[in-house]
From TrEMBL:
The lineage of its organism: Archaea, Methanobacteriati, Methanobacteriota, Methanomada group, Methanobacteria. Residues 14-92 form the 4'-phosphopantetheinyl transferase N-terminal domain. GO terms for molecular function: holo-[acyl-carrier-protein] synthase activity; magnesium ion binding. This is 4'-phosphopantetheinyl transferase superfamily protein. GO terms for biological process: lysine biosynthetic process via aminoadipic acid. Residues 98-174 form the 4'-phosphopantetheinyl transferase domain. Keywords: Transferase. Pfam families: AASDHPPT_N, ACPS. One of its GO terms (cellular component) is cytosol. It comes from Methanobrevibacter millerae. InterPro entries: 4-PPantetheinyl_Trfase_dom, 4-PPantetheinyl_Trfase_dom_sf, AASDHPPT_N, P-Pant_transferase_sf.
Length: 210
């Protein structure tokens, strides 16, 4: 079981959303100074809540693992991961580990990031592509989705593993048969790492999560 979804939070009603959050998430929203960041935090939680409700889970408790990955502590075999960028949030739920990343596809990105931090073959593939900045973000979201899948996040060095970006996206020397899926959403890139092939990413409207 797996479902991947995303939501534009640009027009999220902060007051209405805030009242639907548990205390722990309210505290997190309060931490942010700008409304843009508050909307991302509130919207990500409400999208997760919506996806869980669709599979019959109304009450759940979120805790934080050793390396910062959030998990549901009171439900068996239910995993989730969230990501946000600019005005979009993304969330996946599954019965197995999952990692998600969404990023704005910025054409002005400094490609030296890939040169200095990516695996050598990945950098070479980026520079040989017809659109290097677009290819950079293909690799970026795929790599970060894997890092989040492992639960290590940036404790796992970006150049310690290699993504093979071909018709079928794979991890070099993968022993766990991890599946990668990549989506273009408007001016954004979205990737998911999981045990499943994900064919569709569902777009939700603000009205569906209140």
């Amino acid at each position: 079981m797996i479902k991947l979804a995303y939501l534009n939070v640009e027009n999220l009603d902060l007051e209405k959303s805030y009242n639907l959050l548990p205390k722990e998430r309210k505290d997190k929203v309060d931490f942010y100074r700008f409304d843009k960041d508050k909307k991302l935090s509130a919207g990500a939680y409400l999208l997760l809540k919506k996806l869980l409700k669709e599979i019959g889970i109304d009450d759940f408790e979120i805790k934080i693992g050793k390396y910062g990955k959030a998990y549901i502590s009171d439900q068996e075999n239910i995993y989730f991961n969230m990501s946000h960028s600019s005005k979009f949030v993304a969330c996946a739920i599954s019965d197995k580990e999952v990692g998600v990343d969404i990023e704005y596809n910025d054409p002005t990105i400094d490609l030296n990031i890939a040169k200095n931090y990516f695996y050598n073959q990945e950098y070479e593939s980026i520079m040989k592509s017809q659109n290097p900045s677009d290819e950079f973000f293909n690799y970026w979201v795929l790599k970060e989705s894997y890092m989040k899948y492992t639960g290590l996040g940036f404790n796992l060095d970006l150049d310690s593993f290699e993504i093979i970006l071909e018709d079928e996206i794979t991890l070099k020397n993968d022993k766990n048969n991890i599946k990668f899926n990549l989506f273009d959403l408007y001016e954004y890139k979205l990737a998911i790492a999981s045990s499943y092939n994900v064919d569709e990413c569902f777009e939700y409207e603000i009205s569906e999560i209140y």
